[in-house]
Amino acid sequence: MGKQQASPEARSAGATIYSVAEHAGVSIATVSRVLQGATVVAETTKQKVLAAVEELGYVPLGAARSLAVRHHEAHGLVLPELSGPYYAELLMGFEARAAELAQSVVLVLTDSRTDLAAAVRQLATRVDAIAVFGSAASGDVVRLLRAKKPVVVIAGEASDGVEAVSAENLESARELAGHLLGHGRRRVLFVGDPDSGPDIRDRYAGFVAAHRDRGLTAAEPVRVALNEADGLVVARRLLNGELEADALMCANDELALSVMTSLQDAGRSVPGDVAVVGWDDVMTSRYVRPGLTTVRQPVHELGALAATRLHELVGGEAARSDARTLPTQLVVRSSCGC
Amino acid sequence: MGKQQASPEARSAGATIYSVAEHAGVSIATVSRVLQGATVVAETTKQKVLAAVEELGYVPLGAARSLAVRHHEAHGLVLPELSGPYYAELLMGFEARAAELAQSVVLVLTDSRTDLAAAVRQLATRVDAIAVFGSAASGDVVRLLRAKKPVVVIAGEASDGVEAVSAENLESARELAGHLLGHGRRRVLFVGDPDSGPDIRDRYAGFVAAHRDRGLTAAEPVRVALNEADGLVVARRLLNGELEADALMCANDELALSVMTSLQDAGRSVPGDVAVVGWDDVMTSRYVRPGLTTVRQPVHELGALAATRLHELVGGEAARSDARTLPTQLVVRSSCGC
DNA sequence: CTTTGTTATGTAAGCGCTTACATTCGGCTG
DNA sequence: CAGCCGAATGTAAGCGCTTACATAACAAAG
After folding, report:
1. Mean pLDDT of A299-308
2. Count of CB atoms within 10 A of residue A171's CB?
3. What is the pLDDT of residues A253-267, one digit of tens each?
4. Are B332 and B338 in contact (CB under 8 A)?
5. What pLDDT, in 10s, does the model give residues B89-145?
6. What pLDDT, in 10s, does the model give residues A221-241?
7. Which pLDDT tens digit goes with each residue over A55-111?
8. In a mutagenesis test of the A interface, which of B36, B107, B232 is the best target, namely the one with the most A β-carbons within 10 Å?
9. Which nucleotides in chain C lie less than 7 Å from some protein C-beta?
10. Nearest to residue A47, comparing CAs of A18, A29, A21, A24?
11. Interface with B, mutate which of A1, A59, A227, A292 (most B CBs under 10 A)
């Protein structure tokens, strides 16, 4: 409840390049020059200016600079949310790279928004370029943006003028499904909805390919959302006989963990009765017993790559029509039957 | 590698409030008015303007608006990093609230920065106010900022003109330690360094208080960093007899999980031989066997509170000298011996 | 009809920076 | 010592918006 003296606010509120210039006895151009460090300023003047800056607690107004130089020096990042390590890691990669490039990052999380289009339009107003996670926004939103700023889609569909970066899915999925089949499992189910995005679609395609490789035909996917709640649903359907399987290839770890522990809690043995594998290699997958076999994606690098491309696009480079794909890595633990 | 036609860029690059005004046959003031929606504009003019905006793909330049209205409509958030659910959840709470308040969020992660002070100075340039996580930046940095923009510290020390928001620590720690003592454990160790921040310090204080409550004296803390690696170290010291305990109160879940699983892998029983409890209630704590007894913090709310206070401070409200503290909740599973 | 009040719109003055260009001030050169 | 040149600094023109104030257009009132 205590009142504070208003002095610091008062100071900073008033400090502009003009007051600094006056205080230092130079022109505003000189102040700008020492702060930008581009051109040469005599050492003594420089010190005077710096002293004045210090004394007045001057912070340049970013908006004024942006207006004058005609760009924001900021990248936008649009993600669905941050629960689970996937998006967080992506964001860390993006932020780290953006920092190296001296770009601020402005974050928009779509799950908390009621009006996504408005949020994204407003974002476009404050940044030079935007990276959008594939599932975070519809193609319409991306196209809308594309007309205004450079855009790269992460783990989504490349399209006219919008480039995409993603991790490899098809081959890794084929390898993972092949691994399960190699253990002699013959009733393998893919859990997750291939229509929920291009990455899941590719994982299912790999699943199908692995079956085809050995002259088998793959089962239809069990179309559920990729979260804990739907994992419970799948487990129940398995337990009541509605679904039958000796192996489950889940579209991500959250789903896999949920199914696996539910099954175990109901007395089924994993991988004895049914093998379970996931995708993402979240931290829990390593702590759980049996350890979850999964696929590790170079998420950090993916974020970094997005930031890099954004920067290059802002720099005037043309969009690539070929998507950049980063390799993934199969992490074999014991839930697959190994 | 493909080249793209330059048309979209060309359009948006040129579109300003002037071109829109001209296209619609009105003055720039009118364009601004329909876009801001503040004052009344005749319906027909409004439509003309909107049509022109659409046709030209006009995006107002945020910097120009900020300069004119004299604020950024953005909040800064400084966090150490985002691995683990704690910071991610905090960020989500912050972002969601900021979105409601129509503020953009500019994120700075300090672990990826070589020059923190510079990063933070640059941040101050682009936002109206800044929330800093206590352990993310030194007091110096906070004071530096404070002289320029409103600041709130999350889970840190309130100080002259800088208000703090945090979750309750002392009483919950006292309760948790009391719980362990109530199970008859008598060689309880606190794992984590009380000097690593005010929150850990308070948790240790609660630990001590619980002992005092029953006429016992608490052991010295085992001073280690709050991460997986140091958990391994602690487990090793326990196994080789350097440390002796029948219960471990770890300063966070990451540490607790690491110690617990290492101990189990070495053949010790948890909670049989030694009880282990943590702090944070991360996702893994629920999946691991035995389930980890821990303390859940209202992290999302904490983030939201920070955003709210920032907004109020920007609105001219005076800083509160009393810290706001949010209640936590003991989550009892079975690693404590229950 | 003129006057007055109401709306709708236009005019123009900044907001605080960057930067091209102009100016000043000392040497150096011839 | 006039003439130049280059380094250091100053002058001023924007950057693209918002908004106070001026103006115009028109309806109602006198």
Report:
1. 96
2. 15
3. 999 999 999 999 999
4. yes
5. 999 999 999 999 999 999 999 998 999 989 999 999 999 999 999 888 777 888 888
6. 999 999 889 999 999 999 999
7. 998 999 999 999 999 999 999 999 999 987 889 999 999 999 999 999 999 999 999
8. B107
9. 7-12, 14-20
10. A24
11. A59
Give the dihedral of Cα atoms A127, A130, A135, A139; nearest 10 deg.
100
Contact present, A88 and A77 (Cβ < 8 Å): no
Could you tell me which residues come within 8 angstroms of residue A213 by beta carbon, excluding any fewer than 6 positions away?
A: A174, A178
Instruction: Choose among A228, A236, A221, A233: nearest CA to A191.
Output: A221
The Cα–Cα gap between A206 and A210 comes to: 6
Q: Which residues of chain B lie closer than 8 angstroms to A287, CB-CB? A: 257, 261, 284, 287-288
Q: What is the pLDDT of residues A270-283, one digit of tens each?
A: 999 999 999 999 87
Chain B residues with CB-CB distance to A64 below 8 A: 63, 67
A267, A333 contact by CB (below 8 A)? no
Q: Residue B197, exposed/middle/buried by CB under 10 A (0-12, 13-18, 19+)?
A: buried
What is the predicted pLDDT for the residue at B11? 42
**Average confidence (pLDDT) over B10-31:** 83
Residue B303 neighbours by CB under 8 Å, 6+ apart: B89, B90, B91, B92, B93, B94, B95, B96, B97, B154
For residue A1, pLDDT beyond 60? no
Instruction: Report the interhelical angle of B17-24 vs B43-56 (nearest 10°).
Output: 120
Peptide bond into A271 cis (omega under 30): yes
Which residue, A187, A181, A178, A177, is CA-closest to A244?
A187
| Beta pairing class for B163-167 and B324-326 | parallel
**Which residues, at least 6 apart from B123, have a Cβ–Cβ distance to it below 8 Å?**
A104, B76, B78, B106, B108, B130
List the one residue out of B294, B295, B297 whose CA is nearest residue B334: B294
Residue B251's pLDDT band (cuts 50, 70, 90):
very high
Single-letter code of the amino acid located at A253: D
List A294's β-bridge partners, or say none: A331
CA distance B215 to chain A (A): 37
**Residue B117 to residue B132: CA distance in whole angstroms:** 13
Element (H, E) at A234: helix A228-239
**Short-list A113, A126, A53, A115, CA closest to A80:** A113
pTM, rounded to two decimals: 0.89
Q: Which two tokens stand for residue B100?
A: 């409601």
Would you call B1 helix, strand, or coil by DSSP? coil
Residue A217 structure tokens:
């035909």
CA–C1' span, A31 to D4, in Å?
Answer: 29
CB contact under 8 A, B321 and A1: yes
Residue B5, pLDDT score: 33
Which residue segments constitute the domains of chain B, with CATH numbers given? Answer: 7-68 (1.10.260.40), 72-166+299-326 (3.40.50.2300), 170-296 (3.40.50.2300)
Distance from CA of A306 to the nearest CA of B (A): 16
pLDDT of the residue at A13: 58
Give dist(CA A141, CA B78) in Å, integer. 29
| Residue A334 in contact with partner chain B when CB distance is under 8 A | no
Buried b (16+ CB within 10 A) or exposed e, B36-60: eeeeebeeebbebbeebbeebbbbb
Report which secondary-structure segment, H or E, holds B56: helix B43-56
